[in-house]
Amino acid sequence: MSVEKRTPIPVKEAISRVMKQNVEVRKTQVKLDDSLGYVLAEDIVATYDIPRFNKSPYDGFAIRSEDSKGASGEHRIEFEVIDHIGAGSVSNKKIGKNQAVRIMTGAQIPEDADAVVMFEQTVESETTFTIRKPFEHFENVSLKGEETTTGDIVLQKGQHINPGTIAVLATYGYTEVPVAMKPSVAVIATGSELLEVEDELEPGKIRNSNGPMIKALAESFGLEVGAYKIQQDDLESSIQVVKEALSQHDMVITTGGVSVGDFDYLPEIYKAINADVLFNKAAQRPGSVTTVAFANGQYLFGLSGNPSACFTGFELYVKPAVNKIMGAKACYPQMIKATLMEDFTKANPFTRFIRAKATLTPAGATVVPSGFNKSGAVVAIAHANAMIMLPGGTRGFKAGHTVDVLLTESNAFEEELLL
Ligand code: AMP
Ligand code: MG
Question: What is its EC number (predicted)?
Fold first, then answer.
């Protein structure tokens, strides 16, 4: 049996092949309460001004600014309080010369008033108060439409829904939100050496750690995941399982079996189901055997069985594809420059990705490998929030060098409060 020859392509080219596929972005509606993490499928247009009326940003008194002309420490001007409103109430009283309405934050400014005097700027007595400075037209007033006017596009199609987006949607009365459907994902760990998490260890066997990791990565997008049983290295049953997974889910992620070993059946499975293999070798370490195929509008991600390679494959190829299916405008990983904090002298024949801990310090970003970093490593993934990316054809990166870093985790927390 001769070993199949594979030609490596640059990672960037591999990602672009994934992203060039024709996938259908399907629109649906979800409840506002369930919309976090989805991508908007339509522009959201302001149906009214925000604020909707001139309002008071403070607790104080609404006055006519013209009545405050000439006020000073020596010449305090007195106002008579003729009404009292809280937020949500509207005063219908006519405000005459040197009259005022006691008004709370968020309340609508009475029609005749055009300025607000804060409590702290007054000396109060029972039904009157005095001020010691003149107020300008619209001083201390939040103006109708100062944030957004009717017809503005306030949220854009393709935008990820975050808590702030939800606040805007709530403002405009969206109980249902137009979003793109999220893909459902089948996760299949392949390998006759694999045991389920609950199994006792046996000679020559290891527990399936990739399956639960990939499921968790997918769930961090809020995707619905079908976690399949461990699949033995057996061609016939593997073909059946992959076919079944394709019929029940929008995409299929397998781990293991994409290499050129005697029991690596993924290449044959792709043939058997007539999938178009987009690439089966990427110029990267780890995970050069990572394979992505496409069949009838569905992705099949063949991630390496080596845990670090598997994780890297998900970050590089699955995440952008999921974003694309979800109709997102921003699909790609965030990249930063950081100062390498320890030597890394290994050669990099291909682009190397190193699980790493990036830290944003007041002086800029720093990064260190997050532990033992071979492709089979698992612990370093747990301590990583990033991957260092070293270009192919280089070696000898030293502490102090600036390197490219791909951020993999958005929730970064510090042990110390740095405020
Ligand atoms: P493979 O990609 O099938 O050649 O596997 C590469 C290496 O990853 C082997 O050492 C496997 O035992 C290991 N491996 C494969 N699948 C998993 C998995 N689901 N969890 C942990 N390690 C795995
Ligand atoms: Mg295997």
Answer: 2.10.1.1
